[in-house]
Amino acid sequence: MRTICFYFQVHQPFRLKPYRFFDIGEDHHYWDDFSNRSIMRKVAQKCYLPMNALLLQLIHKYNGAFKVTFSISGTFMDQMEAYAPDVLESFQKLVATGHVELLNETYSHSLASLKSKDEFKDLVYKHQSKIKELFNGYTPKVFRNTELIYSDQIGAMVAELGYDAMLTEGAKHILGWKSPNYVYVNSMEPKLKILLKNFQLSDDIAFRFGNKAWDDYPLTTDKFINWINAIPQEEETLNLFMDYETFGEHQWAETGIFEFMGHLPEAVLSRTNFTFSTPSEVASKIPPVGKIHVPIPISWADEERDLTAWLGNDLQDEAFDRLYELEKLVNTIDDEEIKRDWRYLQTSDHFYYMCTKFFSDGDIHSYFSPYDSPYDAFINYMNVLSDFMIRLKEKTNSQKEETSIQS
Amino acid sequence: MKVLMFGWEFPPHISGGLGTACYGLVKGLTHHKQDIIFVVPKLWGDEEPMADFVNASDISIDYREKKFKSIWKNLTYLEVSSFLVPYLGPDEYKKFTDYAIHDRTDVDESIFTTKYEFSGKYGKNLMEEVSRYALTGAQIARDRSDFEIIHAHDWLSFPAGIAAKEISGKPLVAHVHATEFDRSGETVNQVVYDIERAGMHAADHVIAVSQLTKNTIVRKYGIPASKVTVVHNAVLDASIIKSTFQKKVPEKIVTFLGRITFQKGPEYFVEAAKKVIDRDPNVRFVMAGSGDLLNRMIDRVAELRIATKFNFTGFLKGKDVDHMYAISDVYVMPSVSEPFGISPLEAVRHNTPVIISKQSGVAEVLTNAIKIDFWDIDAMADAIFALLHYNGISRMFKELGSEELKKLKWEHVAAKLVSVYEKTISAKS
């Protein structure tokens, strides 16, 4: 059996509003409601609504022979409920067809897997229950970590939580001569299957599709079918993983991306020996070929496929360490708003905005950042974090008082 | 006495401290019934009518005047590729010079038209404006013969002062608010230095805003000490400001407020902050302002892992500046080189105790402040800690500092100036 596995990442962060020094200690609302709403509405019109409609049509047309997978972050689900109930409804319809799989991730698209096992688990459970709530009791079987971050350790942690499989990047530096087009297993917990992204063919769609300077521009369905057919016969699975915003937002409708996707299922089913599957089907049907060793965490970002988009410079490390120092304190406090802000502050995007790798991938970074510079991003984040710390202290003190009064 | 005064800016349209100082001086001089003809490159029309203002942009130059030729000859060195903006930091300066080298090589011909529209800013045509301002100075000195003395503020107006002296033969007083060494450290811009030096040498008397500046003038510009008089700046309003603005954070606040540039010594503040934060968790440092060293300071704060206790506000204006002073428990000015430095006096007005570097002119007039060497971060940390914890000192500073402030009046400054004028005129005649 040879099969293509399409997985789309659906995520929006809760962006911080411009938060000034003078706001510290006074203003406890950190989120830029206006821009979060307007970005959500804009992308809904350009991407989520038209692409969901197209996928629904394709699923019906091929009566289940075409299927896709989503990982929808908790922050995205919260934003759908607040700003885009129409988008939520269209996702619910897709899931209800039975040919769409949902993956589990950390609720707030967090980097907790690198720092705290307890927090990581909490966020996974929280995401699970949110999916259950919004998608009619649905329970995911496969896990994907924020930004496809993966290491042997993280894999073992995910296995412990009971998942069958996990997705990550088919990074060149860990694969070496090996091909991403097989199923592997975690080197510490072999029961956890590892599905690797074929970054060549994924990025042809996600990053290069509309690039007129690219040698293979324009990417037609014919061309893509030829590349798929060129994959050696013994290689059984082709994992095409990408941001969902590829369709209509990163690649505008004018590039023909919707037409490309509209024609792809027909071409694959009639002119190749590939089918379409979801990650849980791949994991259960295709036998693994061996262990994959990833001692140092990898991700799907940038040329290096490492963590340097989010962590590593002084700004990022300072913000990240100061944030997670608060974990214990947050857990002693019984307050929904504190918990919510704590989760939202963990979203990887905040650290991405502080990235200073200007000269190689910086242009992509600046496209996605609401700030003029990584320094502005850092200042704003630290001002918010300063206020959050003051609130934690106050809450702790008032809780202590309450208990002393009661006793 | 009638004084022909050349400035570069005047409130409300100012971008530096020079305009504020000129305002105070003029106000003080009118208190002593002096008549001032105040020339600025550009008048906006909303200046307070306290002097006989002359808008240099309105002056037409009569090129038939023979003496102009010799004046122009002395100015020609300005003409050659003088891509120079002295109030930029080194990084910005480099960006600008790169641009200037490629895009313009000499002065625009419009400099020789009869009228010239000055921007009055510190922009890319600064040198062109300075030279043109000199021609205007000569024209005004020829048209208005009723003044007895010429007074020029800082190098921007020195060529105008020199030209006016040459035309009229009246004595010139050069007022030094800052030197090129304060602005650029040891890597001075030669053209600016030359103008400063020419101005001070051509002057009959030189005024320095502090002893510190006088020392620089004597040592680096070769002016005899007897020709230089120290006249400190003052404050326009010495009243204590009672702010109702409340701070919202529980910690005590230690503030740096100013341009984040080499001259202001921000890095010493950051290093001292680290030392204090290590000892005292109940303190928050704030760096308010912007400048070419801002990002480097942010990097350093992150590297020292103190960013939850060290905030940056960006550039503050209007009310926010007052609020910042009002909520500060300690104000620090660690300037590497500050001819005067008015901001600690503002802090005193807000009842905030101050720590100032010995390398600032204001240290000569403010007794009730802690004075440290800008590089001595241990002493700075000690002083911050002491002012935060030992209420005795900070209370004393608050009380005595505000008393001291009341003595710093522009009228007193002006009285000193008038005696300098008188001496200069009598020495000349």
TrEMBL record, chain A:
GO molecular function: hydrolase activity
Keywords: Carbohydrate metabolism, Hydrolase
Domain of life of the native organism: Bacteria
CDD domains for this protein: GH57N_MJA1_like
SUPFAM superfamilies on file: Glycoside hydrolase/deacetylase
Record's keyword annotation contains Hydrolase: yes
A Pfam family annotated for this UniProt entry: Glyco_hydro_57
Gene3D superfamilies the UniProt entry points to: 3.20.110.20
UniProt similarity note: Belongs to the glycosyl hydrolase 57 family.
Protein name: Glycoside hydrolase family 57 protein
Protein source organism: Algoriphagus pacificus
UniProtKB/TrEMBL annotation, chain B:
Domain Glycosyltransferase subfamily 4-like N-terminal per the UniProt entry, residue ranges: 143-235
Domain Glycosyl transferase family: 245-398
Origin superkingdom: Bacteria
CDD domains from the UniProt entry: GT4_PimA-like
Residues forming coiled coils: none
InterPro entries assigned: Glyco_trans_1, Glyco_trans_4-like_N, Glycosyltransferase_grp1
UniProt xrefs under SUPFAM superfamilies: UDP-Glycosyltransferase/glycogen phosphorylase
Entry protein name: Glycosyltransferase family 4 protein
Protein source organism: Algoriphagus pacificus
